[in-house]
C-alpha cells in the first residue's frame, strides 16, 4: 500500500495558544494547556516541573468530555 508524504497545500489557521513547557533545559517536552488534566502538570518525558507560556500553533479543539483540572 502506498502512503504519500506530501504536505497539505492549505495553510492551517494559527493562534497564540497557552502551553506548558518543560522547565528542564535538556528536555523539549511541551503540551497544550487545554489537554492538561492537572493544575500543575509534570513533564511526561523527564518528570520535571512545567512552566506556562505561549506559542503560535494551529487551532485544535479538545472535544474530550473530561476537561476538569484537579
From TrEMBL:
Q: Which Pfam families match?
A: YdjO
Looking up InterPro entries in the UniProt record yields: YdjO
Q: Please report the name of this protein according to its UniProt entry.
A: Cold-shock protein
Amino acid at each position: 500500500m502506498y502512503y504519500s508524504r506530501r504536505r497539505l497545500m492549505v495553510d492551517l489557521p494559527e493562534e497564540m495558544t497557552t502551553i506548558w513547557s518543560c522547565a528542564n533545559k535538556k528536555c523539549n517536552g511541551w503540551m497544550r494547556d487545554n489537554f492538561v488534566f492537572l493544575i500543575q502538570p509534570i513533564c511526561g518525558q523527564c518528570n520535571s516541573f512545567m512552566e506556562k507560556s505561549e506559542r503560535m500553533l494551529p487551532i485544535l479543539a479538545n472535544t474530550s468530555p473530561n476537561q476538569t483540572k484537579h
